[in-house]
Automatic annotation (TrEMBL):
Protein name (database record): histone deacetylase
Gene3D superfamilies, alphabetized: Histone deacetylase domain
Biased composition (Polar residues): 428-441, 453-468
Organism listed in the record: Anisodus acutangulus
Named cofactor requirement(s): Zn(2+)
Length: 468
């Protein structure tokens, strides 16, 4: 009887396994066969279950990754590519490094043509910008300077930088850009900042085909006034070259000289200047522009005829540094330009004086290692994009020097820095306190710098040449 039930149960199992047509001449042999099939079936289901679990896990991981990519806007305009991490590290490090050099007085002008990725937000990549090196550099400059001016001559609105400093009066942002059905869609003339930052964001919306003369008819009066009222301790100029004539994505009609005139003008104020790159999609003209502007920064007028070099053939048929602008229509009428200029000058007139800051704490400098690559052991370099496990990597030396730890021996840089800061301190000694500088972990000589409104910087009424 028991065998009969077993027979029936096994037959049903075999049916389920779709092999029940196997003839079973007797209960004994059928039991043996069924046990064999059962054990095979059991293994099969287990295998199937593990495949399903793995598939489910992979799907979850994929969904998590997609969610992360979407959350941080990585994808279409901001693709993931090999070497992305070191790309970001290099261009952002260059800008922060430039700011450190300026803070230490090692140079008057620092240049990082790889930087200027002005669209990146705190939590979001945008417009091929992953990390906003400009914001990082400005934060570095703010450790020493009360006020920093940001100027953006890329054809696109400098939205990421504006957003970062929209509510503070310690950074003024000025962006000259194409406005109206154009990426990123922000930068209306009415966007002026918020709260303490009201009137410290300036937007100059422009239309297609603007030429050198029209551009400078706005740039010089506006920037002259900004320098006069804001009195920045340092200037960051984003020199996006997509505002040049003939750019693949741009629609302005600036010559290289017209573009570089902005560099020349900002340089003339003799204020520490950080020059950054930015957009630019007709590559040979980007190279021409930043080459010429490097000359402007150095005070050298470069010859138009290009010397022989590795990439000479890219610059044919003329092989010259300058290219003539096109004959495209300038849609910026005199009246429109006049309206924009008077509106912005009116906003600037509402700023009575340059805001000042009480430095309660001075954040530590970001210290950039200056390793000699020739001397460095290539094997010990850390490749940020390699697949090496974290544990296998050599420890990275700390790049931030805590200034509240008593140094063993002060280098020349530290002494220069302290001298500089003491000068600042004595300048502002008897003044009233206003606003706090809020981050960092080190006290500056254990004291505070108190600042009087509008008393801290030299006037900029008369631009002077940096060499004079
Ligand atoms: Zn751009």
């Amino acid at each position: 009887m028991r065998d009969t039930y077993l027979h029936l149960a096994l037959s049903s199992l075999l049916n389920n396994l779709a092999i029940s047509r196997v003839a079973a001449p007797c209960a004994f042999s059928l039991t043996g066969l069924a046990l064999l099939v059962y054990s095979l079936g059991n293994g099969y289901w287990r295998k199937l279950l593990s495949i399903w679990c793995r598939w489910k896990e992979e799907k979850k991981t994929q969904q998590d990754q997609l969610r992360q990519l979407k959350r941080f806007n990585v994808g279409e305009d901001c693709p993931v590519f090999d070497g992305l991490y070191s790309f970001c590290q290099t261009y952002a490090g260059g800008s922060v490094g430039g700011a450190v050099k300026l803070n230490h007085g090692h140079c008057d002008i620092a240049v990082n043509w790889a930087g200027g990725l002005h669209h990146a937000k705190k939590c979001e990549a945008s417009g091929f910008c992953y990390v906003n090196d400009i914001v990082l550099a400005i934060l570095e400059l703010l450790k020493v300077h009360e006020r920093v001016l940001y100027v953006d001559i890329d054809i696109h609105h400098g939205d990421g930088v504006e957003e970062a400093f929209y509510t503070t009066d310690r950074v003024m942002t000025v962006s000259f850009h194409k406005f109206g059905d154009y990426f990123p869609g922000t930068g209306d003339v009415r966007d002026i900042g918020f709260g303490s930052g009201k009137y410290y964001s300036l937007n100059v919306p422009l239309d297609d085909g603007i030429d050198d003369e029209s551009y400078q008819s706005l740039f010089k009066p506006i920037m002259g006034k900004v320098m006069e009222v804001f009195k920045p301790g340092a200037v960051v100029l984003q020199c996006g070259a997509d505002s040049l004539s003939g750019d693949r994505l741009g629609c302005f009609n600036l010559s290289i000289k017209g573009h570089a005139e902005c560099v020349k003008y900002m340089r003339s104020f003799n204020v520490p200047l950080l020059l950054l790159g930015g957009g630019g999609y007709t590559i040979r003209n980007v190279a021409r522009c930043w080459c010429y502007e490097t000359g402007v920064a150095l005070g050298i007028e470069l010859e138009d005829k290009m010397p022989q070099h590795e990439y000479y053939e890219y610059f044919g048929p003329d092989y010259t540094l300058h290219v003539a602008p096109s004959n495209m229509e300038n849609k910026n009428s005199r009246q429109i330009l006049e309206d924009i200029r008077s509106k912005l000058l009116d906003n600037l007139s509402k700023l009575q004086h340059a805001p000042s800051v009480q430095f309660q704490e001075r954040p530590p400098d970001t210290e950039l290692p200056e390793a000699d690559e020739d001397q460095e052991d290539a094997d010990s370099r850390w490749d940020a994009d390699s697949d090496t496990n974290d544990e296998e990597r050599k420890p990275i030396p700390s790049r931030v020097r805590r200034e509240n730890v008593e140094p063993e021996g002060k280098g020349t840089d530290d002494m220069k820095m302290e001298e500089r800061l003491r000068e600042v301190e004595s300048t502002f000694a008897d003044s009233t306190s206003l606003k706090g500088c809020n981050s960092g972990s080190a006290l500056m000589d254990g004291g505070q710098i108190k600042v009087e409104q509008g008393s801290s910087n030299k006037p900029f009424d008369q631009p002077t040449d940096i060499n004079s």
